[in-house]
Amino acid sequence: MKPIRSFASDNNAGVHPQVLEALVRANVGHVVGYGDDAYMARAVEKFREHLGDVEVFFVFNGTGANVLSLQALTRSYQAVICTEAAHIYTDECGAPEKLTGCKLLPVATANGKLTVADIERHYHGLGDQHHVQPRAVSITQATEMGTVYWAEEIRAIAEFVHGRGMFLHMDGARIANAAVSLGLGLREATGDLGVDVLSFGGTKNGLMGAEAVVFFKKRLSEDFLFWRKQGMQLASKMRFLAVQFETLLSDDLWRRSALHANRMARALEEGLRGMPGVKVVYPVEANGVFAQVPKAAIAKIQERYFFYVWNEAQGVVRWMCSFDTTEEDIREFCAFVKETLALQ
Questions:
Q1: Range of the domain at 311
Q2: Does the pTM of the predicted model rise above 0.90?
Q3: Residues 76 and 221 in one domain
Q4: How confident is the model at residue 258 (pLDDT cuts 50, 70, 90)?
């Protein structure tokens, strides 16, 4: 029998019990729809406690948050610079380019992180009607490789971007994991470093179909109500998104859940250490472990545990931990990997 928890994605985890309890409490009586309710007001206030004087809009999923964020920043003749591993480039079925009309300019990186030098290489053709005009830079925190931008790296990118009239978007699907890895609060890890618009991840940290778009510059959000509705991301029963965020941002739940997931990833890395043929290929800085495994063993391990192959040619797999991963899960998984390798 397959274990009840896998290492495929933090999306595969359930909903945090405290969030479920909050949903049940909110499921009483009738409430005005589309966000004109007390639940929404309290959730927005929680965001402002953590992130400052921001404008925040709730959406259903990360793709919606990313696409609408970029739509608010760009016009169709402009371009967004990102890494070639960025979710907006590889895993959103062309939605950012289709719906914004912009061109994505991907950059190859060794560790999933953009640098100022990377961005500068794409900053050309200004004013030339034959070329798309660079308008925004999108970084992912934590990155698709499980690495984390240091505060000074984001600040340097923001200074470069703003000095050239561009905007900085952060795909923060795992912003909680990154912030606790850096030992920073949510505002210190985002707006204080120069981020203009943040896709704030909730689903990967224990929520149920709830993400947010956060504007640190309010003027950028002037038309966002219309972008969100046109983009089919406006929830009618908004209280059920709002109460989840209110819960996540109360009593340090966001931090505790992310800290636990990160700790489990480090425990997994430790458990893999010394196994013949297994090599962790990126630093474990958030809640993901990327490991090179003998190709013959991958399919055998997948017979029991569901996970994704990150690079088939190189035999690199991705193992993700979440708020509900346990130490027993880690021990059992590592024992099975070791047993499988011994049979190869």
A1: 254-342
A2: yes
A3: yes
A4: very high
